[in-house]
Design a protein that fits this description.
By secondary structure, the protein is mostly helical. The protein folds into 2 domains: about 160 residues, no CATH class; about 210 residues, Myeloperoxidase, subunit C (Orthogonal Bundle). Strands 1-2 form a two-stranded antiparallel sheet. The protein has a two-stranded antiparallel sheet with strand order 3-4. Pfam families: An_peroxidase (PF03098).
Length: about 450
């Protein structure tokens, strides 16, 4: 009987809709694989050990069509018709991988998968076109003929949307408002995502350790504690060199950092050095408020610039001949607490005061984009005040960045005792840390803890 006559007598066997597995292989041009029985059925590949393994696997498990499509003795559901492959079944996954290999998708998908996996713990490399590879993978695998999208592909698509969403902070950490271009006097607005007062001067200390023990009523006096733990034992010559060779200036610089981050309010609410109307309702004037940090929680040279606009005004040069240049009064700083410290701390702070004025003069001299007027006589009083604020804010940003750089590159390395190693490594948390899972949050604010204050 000829094939033509067979088709006329059995029209339904030729025109019926093929099973899903057959459809996949027919669309890829490998219809002869539907009846694989042994490697001899593939003459051109009969000598390949890979195809022998495939045929043996096929004989022991069944045909590709049977495992890619629903069983004949049950009715397939809509979900099975859309995505009949059980991703938890190794057999189904094996046949699905074979189908992908035959259709030529495996090599390109493996390359995309490799780039994806290598990006999990490393910054994204735009030259590897990872996003483009993921889009290509979705475009080639999202739909089957006459069927809807695969749930498995929807999962990948969801992760791709998560990648795009997490690539940018939500809500945005800052904006273009003029009041957010420079540091505020009290350190506020470092977090615009619901906590603008986080770490600002006058806020409460954070607690990082759960209180498990009550404070005993009788504790040692500070003098006794210092003598017992911190006092140096002098030798006969009266001096003992630091084991790591550190200079005393390191501890003078540490004083600047400590006074920059911590200032417990051990006075009553009528403290003349700090007036914050928003806190008066919470402060009992007859008691100290040691829970309150009167300075900001940022390394921002508050000892030099002050913790609020009132203190800041005492050190800014507002003389008529200098208004508009963003200067500080010569050799001044805002914090009177440093006068009780060793003179080296005050001397170092004076250096940062001079550095601010040097930066301010340089900023006005360079005058990028011609945004400022060097000839102050051509400006009105309001224009001079605005220019003074902008130059002052810019110079403070640069000066604080220089101060933070010293903290990271010198002070922390001295604490970690890595200065003895022959290395140029520094701990730099300002770098962007980004990978496929998102990026490490930056510029979201900070609040120092009371426990850290006690240690310092």
């Amino acid at each position: 009987m000829s094939i033509f006559k067979f088709a006329q007598q059995n029209p339904t066997k030729i025109t019926h809709r093929p099973k899903l597995g057959e459809e996949l292989l027919q669309s890829a041009g490998y219809t002869h694989l539907l009846q694989i029985g042994s490697a001899n059925d593939l003459p051109s590949l009969s000598k390949s050990p890979i195809w022998r393994k495939v045929s043996e696997f096929n004989l022991s498990i069944g045909t590709i069509s049977n495992y890619l499509s629903p069983k004949a003795n049950r009715t397939a559901t809509t979900e099975q018709e859309i995505d009949p492959i059980n991703l938890n079944d190794p057999t189904h996954l094996s046949y699905f991988g074979l189908q992908q290999l035959l259709s030529g998708r495996i090599p390109q998908n493996l390359e995309a998968l490799k780039n994806t996996l290598t990006s999990l713990t490393k910054p994204l490399d735009d030259r590897k076109l990872l996003l483009e590879d993921i889009v290509g993978l979705l475009a080639t695998s999202a739909r089957q003929p006459l069927h809807g999208p695969r749930p498995s592909v929807n999962v990948l698509q969801g992760q791709f949307i998560n990648l795009l969403w997490n690539d940018l902070p939500h809500p945005p950490p800052t904006d273009l408002s003029p009041q957010h271009r420079y540091r505020s006097a009290d350190g506020s607005n470092n977090n615009l995502m619901g906590f603008p007062q986080l770490g600002a001067a006058g806020q409460a200390y954070s607690r990082s350790v759960k209180p498990l023990h009550q404070i005993p009523p009788d504790i040692a006096e500070p003098e006794e504690l210092f003598d017992a733990i911190l006092r140096r034992d002098y030798d006969r010559d009266g001096f003992k060199e630091h084991p790591a060779g550190l200079s005393s200036l390191m501890f003078a610089f540490a004083n600047l950092i400590i006074h920059d981050l911590f200032w417990s309010n051990n006075r009553s609410s009528d403290n003349p050095q700090f007036q914050n109307n928003s806190q008066k309702d919470h402060i009992n004037s007859s008691k100290s408020s040691s829970w309150q940090n009167l300075t900001s929680s940022y390394v921002s040279l508050d000892t030099l610039y002050g913790v609020n606009s009132t203190q800041q005004a005492t050190v800014r040069d507002n003389l008529a001949e200098n208004l508009g240049r963003g200067l500080l009064y010569n050799d001044t700083f805002a914090s009177a607490r440093l006068l009780l410290m060793p003179p080296a701390s005050s001397a170092l702070l004076i250096l940062f005061s001079r550095n601010h004025n040097r930066i301010a003069r340089k900023v006005l001299q360079l005058n990028e984009r011609n945004q400022w007027q060097p000839d102050l006589s051509k400006l009105t009083q309001d224009e001079r005040q605005q220019q003074d604020d902008e130059i002052f804010g810019t110079a403070r940003l640069v000066n604080c960045a220089h101060f933070a750089g010293i903290v990271l590159s010198d002070y922390i390395l001295a604490i970690l005792n890595t200065i003895q190693a022959d290395s140029d490594w520094i701990l730099d948390p300002r770098m962007t840390i980004k990978n496929l899972l998102g990026s490490t949050p930056q510029a979201v604010g900070n609040s120092v803890s009371v426990e850290f204050n006690i240690l310092c």
